[in-house]
Amino acid sequence: xxASAAAVSGGTIGRRTFNPWxxxxxxxxxxxxxxxxxxxxxxxxxxxxxxxxSAVTDSEWVxxxxxxxxxxxxPISGWxxxxxxxxxYFLLSIAVFTISSLCCGMARSLNQLILxxxxxGLAGGGLQPSSQGILLDTFPLEKQGAxxxxxxxxxxxxxxxxxxxxxxxxxxxxxRWIFYxxxxxxxxxFFLCWATVQDPEYLRDALKQLRKKPVPFDSIGLGLLVLTLxxxxxxxxxxxxxxxxxxxxGRVQTLVVLxxxxxxxxxxxxxxxxxxxxxFRPLRDRNFAISCLIIFCCFGVLYGSSTLLxxxxxxxxxxxxxxxxxxxxxxGIFTIMAIVIVGALLGRGVDARWLIGCGLLIVAVGNFWMxxxxxxxxxxxxxWPRVVMVGGLGLVFAPLNVAxxxxxxxxxxxxxxxxxxxxxxxxxxxxxxxxxxISERREQxxxxxxxxxxxxxxxxxxxxxxxxxxxxxxxxxxxxxxxQMAIQSMADLRDQQALALSYFDCxxxxxAVSVILAFLVLLMKRxxxxxxxxxxxx
Length: 538
Known about the structure:
24 helices, Growth Hormone, Chain: A, 4 domains
C-alpha cells in the first residue's frame, strides 16, 4: 500500500469498541483543560504575587515556565507516544497534569509554584498532539472535517474563555482555585479516556518493532531542543522588560545568540539522525508547511488581540477584569456556530483551501474594524468586531487541520501533529509579546507626535486652558495650582489618546497580517476531505 493510500485508510485501521464520537468527546476534554491553562492564570498574576509575597514582575515566571516546558514537550510528543504507546502516554500526561495542578494550588512560595508549573507544562504538552492524533486515527478521512471541528472548539474557545473564567474565579474565590478546578475535570478526563481510547493496530505493531530493535536515545537533539525553546520563551516573556537588544546587561543578546545556535544545530542534527526526537520531515510537504505558517500567525493574532483588548478596556474605559471578559466572551458563542457550519461544509466535500482563505479575510475585516474605534464607544461596539475576528478564526481552524494532514503519511503523523501544536502555541506566545511591545512603542510615538502642537502658540490649547483653569481655581483657590492642574489634565488627555492610538495600530497590523496570509492559500494543493480525494489529488 502506498503512503498516500495508507493515509486515506489510516482513520479506519485499528479496533474500535466505542462510537467514534464518544472517543472524540473523551479526548477533547483534556485538550480544553490544557489550552485553558495557557491563559487562565494571566489575569491572576498580581493576586498570585500578593498571595506569595513576590513582585509582580517575578510572578510572570508562572506563565513563562509553563509555556517553556510546554514548548519542549510538544515537538517530541510523537516520539514519546511511539516509544511508550500513545494510549499509555496520553493517560500518563492527564494524570501528571491533574496532580501537578493540585500542587500548584497548594504552593506556599513562588519558587514552588514555578516548579509545579514546569511539571504541569511538561505533562500538558502531550495532551494536544495525542488527542488530535487519536481523532485522526478514529475517524475516516471523509469525517475528518467534523472531528477537527470538535477539536477546534476546544483549541479556540479555551483561550477566549480563559481570561474571563480566571478573572471571575480570582475575584469570587482565590487564585488557587484556577488550579483546583483541574482536579474534577482531569479525573473525569482520565476515566473517560481510560475506558474509551485504544491504540490502532499500526501503532501497536510499531511499538513491538521498537522494543525488538531499540534505537539509541537522541540526547543531543533533546539538549538542543531544550536550549532553543527555553531561550525563545524567556526572550518573548522578558524581552520588552529588558529593552530587547538595548539590554545593558546583555541578557537579551545572549539569549538571541543561544537561540540561533541552538536552533540551527537542532535542525542540522535532527535531519541526519536515524531516530530524531524532533522529526522535521513533515515540513517537506507543501500543504503542511504552509498550514504551519498560517496557524502560527493566526494564533499570534488571536492571543495578541486577546491580550491587548482587556488591557484597552481596563485602562481606557475603566472596566474591571471580569467585565472586560464579559465583553470578550460573546465571540466564543459565534465561533462555535462558525466551527459547526464549517464542519458541515467540509463533510459535503468543500475544498478546505477556500474556507481558510475566506476565514482569514474575515479575520482581517474584524481587526480593521477594531482599528477604527474611538474612545466614545459602548460595549456593544466592541463586541461585534471581536465576534467577526474570532468567528473568522473559527472558519480557519478545522479546514486548516484537514489541509495540513491530508497528504501526510501515517508514519509521520505523530511528528506532524506535534510540530503543528508547537507552532500553534508558539504563535500565541509571539503574538502576546509582539502585541505588548508594539503597543508600548507606538504609545511613545503617538505621545510625541500629539505633543508637537501642544504649545502656547496653538489657539486650541489656549482655549482649553481658559475653559478648564477657572474650574480648578474654584476648587482650590490657588491660581498657580489651578494652572498646573489644567496643564496636567491636557497631558492626561494626550496620553489617553496616544494609548488608544497604539492599541488601534496593533489591530491594524493584525489585519494586514491576515490579508497576507490569505494569499498563501493559493499555494496549497487541493484539500477535500472525502473518500479517494487524497489519492486522486496526488
